[in-house]
Protein: Precorrin-3B C(17)-methyltransferase
Amino acid sequence: MTGSLVIAGLGPGSDAMVTPEVTGALARATDVVGYIPYVARIAPRAGLVLHASDNRVEMDRATAALRMAAEGRHVVVVSSGDPGVFAMASAVFEALEPHPEWHGLDIRVLPGITAMLAAAAAAGAPLGHDFCAINLSDNLKPFDLVLKRVRLAVEADFAMAFYNPRSRSRPDQFGHVLEVLRGVCTPERLVILARAVSTPEQALRVLPLCEVTPEMADMRTVVIVGSSATRRVGGWVYTPRSA
Amino acid sequence: MTGSLVIAGLGPGSDAMVTPEVTGALARATDVVGYIPYVARIAPRAGLVLHASDNRVEMDRATAALRMAAEGRHVVVVSSGDPGVFAMASAVFEALEPHPEWHGLDIRVLPGITAMLAAAAAAGAPLGHDFCAINLSDNLKPFDLVLKRVRLAVEADFAMAFYNPRSRSRPDQFGHVLEVLRGVCTPERLVILARAVSTPEQALRVLPLCEVTPEMADMRTVVIVGSSATRRVGGWVYTPRSA
Structure:
């Protein structure tokens, strides 16, 4: 019996941003595995088992999904956004590493619209030229490394997208990053705070750096900081192609 | 008569990666505007005018699209990948800037799967942690700025995605970037060359930096360079979440 494992991106929230190949993979699945709010987006049907698990158990979830695929099930691991950007794909490959008996499994990664692309589209085109994406969470890496990357990104004059800027268990990170930015950028540098983008709760703010406060971000927010060339036109924000 | 302008991402090539909101916008369009090979992906139908134009006329194309929308047409500007990543969205906002009479137009940007996300998914999860995207073309910016960004990105230990690494008119850029990388990275640093990803011509190579040569890339290739932590597991390449 030959199983399969698909790691699929559901996009940032709207079903209108789920790609047909992800919808197709879900239609063929015997099992869907993921964090509770993402699995909640999948319609139940006969023959489909939904395995919803809590946050911060990514490795257990990944190993369970691999085991089910090895047993012949057709498993889809769901992520929000793109599974390869601060999401489940890396966790699955990390879980695969110590299990050579599973290395021949039929595994596919299906990309999705990651939050920064949806946030950028909602604001205009702030990532219209060279940019970087940094996960501000220090759950798995030292926070000094985050701050070093922010400093170098400013020096390179990248536009920047920050994932996981702030949560209840990490209330201070975004404030520290803002301090670094204020030390090296002008007060007018444009910042976009995009919360729950593409969902009915979407809230988008565009502010100069000097007006941004840490509590404007939470775990559902992606923050985009423009490059030195990022500017407004009408109600939009964009980074010129020559930036 | 109220027109509209949608700037839509068609994804990297496969129709299975076109989001339903983009498909819906195309179904409602009176006019589709874009570079010849992208417009060629749109099925003709009664009531739809296709406006295909050559490469390097982005500003003319953007202005024409804005003018048609101002005249009451429902215009979709198509880009490959995501329109906000090295594509048409910035050009449209740049063309909008000198025309305040158009600033109130109904404009929307619809994100798409950008090439680096599709390439990363095909390879595993090489962008699984902090990363940057750099356009190697010097059509609109000095090449010294590109090389500076590459150096700083290595110092930050980002995974890197390079767009437009090499073309007939710019045959040398990718070679210069490889020289910079060889000066600062180990010879084993993993490089992914993903050509025409998600199309029938897809070709994916994973090589250590020391084996990469400039002619392995062309204008249909996106190049992903791993961080120092990027590694192989089975046939896959991934960057650990702790990187």
Summary: Chain A is about 30% helix and 25% strand. The mean pLDDT of chain A is 96. Chain A has two domains: 4-113, 116-238. Chain A touches chain B through 73 residues (CB under 8 Å).
